[in-house]
Amino acid sequence: QIQFVEDKQEFSRFPTKTGRRSLSRSISQSSTDSYSSTDSSDDETSPRDKTQVNVKGSSDFCVKNIKQAEFGRREIEIAEQMAALISLRKRAQSEKPLAGAKIVGCTHITAQTAVLIETLVALGAQCRWTACNIYSTQNEVAAALAESVAVFAWKGESEDDFWWCIDCCVNTEGWQPNMILDDGGDLTHWMYKKYPNVFKKIRGIVEESVTGVHQLSKAGKLCVPAMNVNDSVTKQKFDNLYCCRESILDLKRTTDVMFGGKQVVVCGYGEVGKGCCAALKALGAIVYVTEIDPICALQAMDGFRVVKLNEIIRHVDVIITCTNKNVVTRDQLDRMKNGSIVCNMGHSNTEIDASLRTPELTWERVRSQVDHVIWPDGKRVILLAEGRLLNLSCSTVPTFVLSITATTQFQALALIELYNAPEGRYKQDVYLLPKKMEYVASLHLATFDAHLTELSDEQAKYLGLNKNGPFKPNYYYEM
Amino acid sequence: QIQFVEDKQEFSRFPTKTGRRSLSRSISQSSTDSYSSTDSSDDETSPRDKTQVNVKGSSDFCVKNIKQAEFGRREIEIAEQMAALISLRKRAQSEKPLAGAKIVGCTHITAQTAVLIETLVALGAQCRWTACNIYSTQNEVAAALAESVAVFAWKGESEDDFWWCIDCCVNTEGWQPNMILDDGGDLTHWMYKKYPNVFKKIRGIVEESVTGVHQLSKAGKLCVPAMNVNDSVTKQKFDNLYCCRESILDLKRTTDVMFGGKQVVVCGYGEVGKGCCAALKALGAIVYVTEIDPICALQAMDGFRVVKLNEIIRHVDVIITCTNKNVVTRDQLDRMKNGSIVCNMGHSNTEIDASLRTPELTWERVRSQVDHVIWPDGKRVILLAEGRLLNLSCSTVPTFVLSITATTQFQALALIELYNAPEGRYKQDVYLLPKKMEYVASLHLATFDAHLTELSDEQAKYLGLNKNGPFKPNYYYEM
Amino acid sequence: QIQFVEDKQEFSRFPTKTGRRSLSRSISQSSTDSYSSTDSSDDETSPRDKTQVNVKGSSDFCVKNIKQAEFGRREIEIAEQMAALISLRKRAQSEKPLAGAKIVGCTHITAQTAVLIETLVALGAQCRWTACNIYSTQNEVAAALAESVAVFAWKGESEDDFWWCIDCCVNTEGWQPNMILDDGGDLTHWMYKKYPNVFKKIRGIVEESVTGVHQLSKAGKLCVPAMNVNDSVTKQKFDNLYCCRESILDLKRTTDVMFGGKQVVVCGYGEVGKGCCAALKALGAIVYVTEIDPICALQAMDGFRVVKLNEIIRHVDVIITCTNKNVVTRDQLDRMKNGSIVCNMGHSNTEIDASLRTPELTWERVRSQVDHVIWPDGKRVILLAEGRLLNLSCSTVPTFVLSITATTQFQALALIELYNAPEGRYKQDVYLLPKKMEYVASLHLATFDAHLTELSDEQAKYLGLNKNGPFKPNYYYEM
Amino acid sequence: QIQFVEDKQEFSRFPTKTGRRSLSRSISQSSTDSYSSTDSSDDETSPRDKTQVNVKGSSDFCVKNIKQAEFGRREIEIAEQMAALISLRKRAQSEKPLAGAKIVGCTHITAQTAVLIETLVALGAQCRWTACNIYSTQNEVAAALAESVAVFAWKGESEDDFWWCIDCCVNTEGWQPNMILDDGGDLTHWMYKKYPNVFKKIRGIVEESVTGVHQLSKAGKLCVPAMNVNDSVTKQKFDNLYCCRESILDLKRTTDVMFGGKQVVVCGYGEVGKGCCAALKALGAIVYVTEIDPICALQAMDGFRVVKLNEIIRHVDVIITCTNKNVVTRDQLDRMKNGSIVCNMGHSNTEIDASLRTPELTWERVRSQVDHVIWPDGKRVILLAEGRLLNLSCSTVPTFVLSITATTQFQALALIELYNAPEGRYKQDVYLLPKKMEYVASLHLATFDAHLTELSDEQAKYLGLNKNGPFKPNYYYEM
Fold it and tell me: What is the pTM of this model?
């Protein structure tokens, strides 16, 4: 077993990532189970202690139960139905732009990621994969992947398992990775620390999360070009506005609340809040907004009253936080109505006051991710996901899946770009993937049966644009 | 074991009800499982062969597993959070208007019904209960109820079990029912046939379903007053428009489809279709409507193009039927896009062509209630609930739950009304519960924190209305 | 000059009609002016004192200024662009179903009515026409009509002019009407009183307004069959819900208010209120509702808080009344914010407290139909149309125009039906025009490019319907 | 009379501005008339030839008719009702931050600008004003202003009048301006050319339009600091998205079109297009979008099909262009339906093909700003504002008014900032007014009765923000 104490401590300095992972441990049951999940839940043996063989006779993988591969395949098939990534796979397959690429990946392992990995393989790459989060792996999907790819991941890994899996990905005989796809920087960091010689030969790193990218550039030790696929106005906007508009509906999945006529307060009217508010208003809820920023507050002329939480705390049926730290205080929770719902769609796991964990309040788990917090007088407040991010916790397809649907394409494009870039195009720095955005957007359009108009020569000239784009100024992507 | 062949044949003449029940048998897994359900799913012993005792030491019940009572209690607590019925319980509890009432009930057994039953008990009634559908019972809820009420129901009853449970309810020593609450008429019919002497002493029947009421009045043998709580403009409107607007969201629960930008055709622009269309449009779908009736078609000026299904069949991502028989033909399904979704929100189970069940099409169950139907060329169409009613099948809280939320109050009010009515007020006929609608609506208003305005004397006089209502003309309820 | 004192007194017993007309007199300037109106406004000569000749050389008409005919023709052309009535004209023109009909009409004279009248002529009828309201006539349109039809109407008639015009229509040598089209019953009443012998020979009366129909049937002296084209669920619904949804936008025309973020209270959540609320919410206003009826209040789960007016009177920016008498009291007006707007979309002219007409409040007319009512402390409340019906007063195309767009078709159909009905089909009674509704709706559908689906034989049989309709039960129309 | 040929030619190189002004000349009647306008329309005497005296006995102004001052005052009072600018006036009045400022202004002269000018005066400034557009002046408002401010402007100025008015503002004995407020750069340019010595002593220029700012900086001869109040993400967003959402409703004012069920195509899904689409969808229209940019096209998942114009040109009822040059071609116009509407909400005046001005097409003006273009076969297409910008032409309160409502505050703030800035803070360059945006937004919030939440110390620290803002990063304003 690997001892890597020093680094684990170092990681704890990256709060978001570690925070997310640690908190996840308290989840006793995930909602990401697929149809067959119950079959395996009884099996308590650690995957590391099992001997499993896939249909090809290989044992170079480690998943919960390879026999679930068929169920996982169906989940992947569902994901393929919607994936614009398939368009990319079809367009680029004959060119094999990733022929010769040896990619180690460390991401959430879901049906959507599986579509990505299998696309990378279809484009010519060899892949080895592990999970970036100890709880988010869909076991069946991992099993399905393991039939052809070296996957090391299961739901409910221990911290030690987590690093063991990463090491299995990287440290294998006769195979040296030349590309990294990372989400959070753990894989990158591990390779940098443990296998510096391998790391130096990497041609490029594609990194998903802000945390991961920060780590890279702050460390100042970046010796390979990296591409940040997360930071662009457009992607942020799509992820936040559009995805939240869809994923707030998970509130219904979880609590069966009827939206019509309910009084809801959304704390924060940024992109996430805007998405939530739009969906809730559309479904007949009466929505209030709290804001600290006058510009966002003014945008609430979309149709929402801007109030202070205290003004309406006694009336609201639902509080949704889309902001930051301790937006809902214990004092406010004390004044809420019996049966009201509190949940967090925001950026951090600390939006709802931690002081709900006190002896005088009783917690009763009524469903997966749903707790009744019971006051001494019998009042119940329904708390979702223990105050953690709702859209990461409470549904089969939360925000991050939709996000990944888009993300996976950026990741694939970034890998292709970095792998095929001529020497010198990218230095040892962190890059954005800006103009490719339009290409990704256009891949999506096929899914929507959308027909783009082409500029006439005259119009292009009038506008000073190339007929094939890019259509947006640079600053649009770099903001 | 009871043989009741003759009646079963007779029942098969009531297509909706029987059809619904028979089709239900093919459901291999329901989505109505609560948090603990997986624990019991392994248990293959028939409840009829088990010996169970509740906390009071009684064995006068038959449920899947009495040990699940605690989990069921939590579901009931969730339901109580929202139930306007609790208002009624509080208002009428001191009066005990059902003191002396002995009610046999045959309804769906869900958390919402449990709130009703426990309300009836709180108002003074004794109750014995059974399920009106062999598959809709929430086992944990039944267990929770069985701690204090004689309940005979579990999910997955056989036809024989179904009648055995009804008989257990009715045929018990030292207890004769004087009121019936029925949904579909099976209980009523059984009592009429098997226990005519008991039946004659019944003071009133409250019947939920249209089928059940038809049966009663058509038979012409109604010897007790009955009240139909289903047929009123208002209730229809609430159930259809408002509930469908909410329950169409189950489409997302089931398929994880993103609504934004999807092309959806809704077949039928009646109240159900209107509700679906409004919600889908609000969430960013592009919605088309098909209609046969010019008046409904004109109402689509709400914002929807009225098309013939054939015009757009090749483009749509989702078909939702809200009408009648064979609206979507096999020929049309042949022309749909790969990955498109087909589901049924309508009134019957025959809206989608049965010809999908042919050898050349492969069915692959990918989740509970979700099948991929695969054409020889690999095209997949996602069929929900095998074409049966989506809102009865695909969610924890489908339309019928919300409906029951309202319905249970009507049922309670109707029971109170019939039980307390002076001799002669009701004859041996089927009655509606019209004016009480306003009372029920006003009970609900508390839930919405809504404040009614009162007419001034002058205004009441001007309008020719009593200040306390009713505010609607008679025909409003009787339409 | 005609003396008809007795009847005028009698008419004053019909409050709505007379009230509307009398109040209209205080309008100093109408917004119904067309492009050219200013040219004629200087002309103070009474039309009765002018000698005018149309292009055909006839003087059998009396309008403000025949020279405005060209401008009026353009208004009619605009109206024709939208009129589904044109479909009827085209369909029925070859059949000339009104050949031989001699119709006297008394309606609002607007571009839309002009389309009706010219359609009647195209279908074979001879027409003479007058106005049912002393202020609603569009002078240019009347001029355009007068080129081919005997029209007697202008904006700003005196009471005496009003009856003189009616008499000119009826009392003409060598021409006896055999059909009446009336709106309000004034024409009918005049003929009944003054020309009883002509009246007896009338084959049918088509009456638009509720008032007019009441008059007929209450009088008990109806000696000819009459058809009420106003009272049907469908028409009410279209007029109220759909038209109000559009015409509330006139609030912007009149006051330039920005809807986004404004707090609006809509008094009354009937069909009119529902239409207003839907439009305002859609445009970003924050909408509250007041209601007396619990059922309507419950329907506000469409997305509106139900409040008492007093709760929010200090906060709202706009009050819209959609109800009845004195909904907004002087006391409440005293508490409104500076700059708030008050208007009336309801059924009567008395929804806003008359006590605004007191010496301590200053009225300042800032635009046509817009008064600032100024409190002693300088606070201004913006009152529209002096509290009268906004949609009758404040726009070029108010509700009643859209209504008439539909109405004119009903009127035409009713005239055709009555004129061609075999002896005995209609008695001396008031009839509705029920089933034709579907025909009218289908005429409209062409305008919307809507494509109806046809029932298959199998479906028709299943539903028990004729493939060509009617699709609605009788009670749908008769409610 | 002033000859200034050389400069006029130079101006013609600034296409937007000059184009706008020239095109305006063809407007025969504006819709910006206030209540009293008709009184003065007969008066053909040039204001320059009249002798007028205001109530103070001064003749230092030149307007159409000083007697209309009272009517103009009412328009200003209406504008004051809504103006957040009044908040600024109240807050800053005691400080007189503009004491000593001598401002020459050249802007649209409307009720909203009047509120600005009178605010500047209230804050201590002396003002002289002229119009930046020969047709946009509201004569009554100019008259009202002229009672206390030296205003030189009327509707329908000639080119020569235009420069004469500017000169009157600047060239007056005993008064030298020290601040400029300009919209389009004409005033600035004139001063720079004709009065270079005065110009050098100017302390700052506040410029509204992009054109004007370009002129300044491109010329490279900027010898005073200038502030561009137009270019910020936020302002663009408010002006475009929010204002267009409101001003598209003018389509109804102008054409009386019913939105429900109409098929509308919006060309361009930028901010302007998004605003139009949102409003139209909300009102029941069926909206299509055309786009050239895949990112914007993808955002149409808001609920709109992305099509090529040719695909639907035969079906649509309304075309709204929100883009650039020649989006709608003559060929497409040929294929439109009879009665369809074409209008322009975009950025330029050339979006609709100029080839409609041909002999074979007849133009018929049916209302102010509304032409029927008639094809040889009788087909009519309704063209608004001759294809020029709808929201500048077709309503009393078009986009630019709402825009100015916001703009005027920026202008006032920029004037205060520049006038009071310590020496050296601003160089001879063009500045933005970024962070003040939040201050302006917060002034607006009072209008909306919105209550901002304040950050706690802990939260501010967590977020790394000052509790009083700014809350947005710099790039947010500078994009």
Answer: 0.76
